[in-house]
Amino acid sequence: GGGCRPALALAALAALALLTGAGGLLGQRSPQTSRGRAVLALPRVSLGRRLVDDRELEAAIFDCDGTLVDSMGAWFPSWQVTCARHGLSITEEQFWSFAGVSLPDIITSLHRAQKGEDPTEEFIQAFLKDKREVHAELEAKRGSPPAIAAVVDLVRHYKRLGVPVAVASSGLREVVERHLEHAGILELFDTTVVAAEVPRGKPFPDVFLRAAEALGVDPSKCRAFEDAESGFESAWRAGMQVVDVRRLPGYPLSPGLRKAMASEDMSKWAAGGADDEPRRRLRLRSSSSSSSALFPSS
Known about the structure:
Residues 1-24 form the signal peptide. Pfam families: HAD_2 (PF13419). One of its GO terms (molecular function) is sugar-phosphatase activity. Keywords: Signal. By secondary structure, the chain is of the alpha/beta class. It folds into two domains: 2-70 and 144-292, Rossmann fold; 73-142, Orthogonal Bundle (DNA polymerase, domain 1). It has helices at residues 5-20, 72-85, 92-97, 103-115, 121-142, 149-160, 173-182, 206-215, 229-237, 255-262, 267-270, 289-292, and strands at 30-34, 37-39, 46-47, 59-62, 165-169, 191-194, 222-226, 241-244. The chain has a six-stranded mixed sheet with strand order 3-8-7-4-5-6, with helices on both faces.
């Protein structure tokens, strides 16, 4: 409600102060500038060893769900309800570990683990139909998700510095734009690209490459902001610096997400970055990422 806004604003300002202050996550300001912009860096929340100097930074590209809007947890209840209807179950920790994986792949994984066999195509389609309906009902009651202040402050910061900003999402355009508009941040972005508009979804690089193309910038001079493994890999393979927004001060970490993060294997990033080819936890199906993303507006 409206009474929460002052507290959120103060938290956002505190997070930005930590990011931009001396010794903060963004590091100290440099006297050098690029096209009149202050020089900043994001070494402590970046993955791998790829860093884009702010003097050369041409664009900042953001995922949507779990990055710009706090919608990730909102998807979990519909998963619980739909799984129960179809004789399956899912824990919150499992839910977070599946971030960025397509719905058919998740259903297949759960069914295989709990039933000992792959689901039929009919089962998957019936599950997906119920899942969409359940989530629509829940969101109609709950309303659209709020913006994540710690990340949106960075968007506004880049806008003030004249850095182009874009959205690169795995979701459906109408859902992405509705969530961004409800959060009051849709107008901040120079362009939005969604998975339906590219050949392959995350963890392939297509959506980030298309966003860079739409902005007319060099992907290797872009900084990508993500919250899930498939997004990290997608942006890395696009040649961009990758920032894990979950590690920003003020990011809303649920208990389930904390557990999922604690069990992640981040060794490949410490070693320098992702492999050249996407590594998937599941045997991929041929389903389209534009219609089957785990989080339809991610």
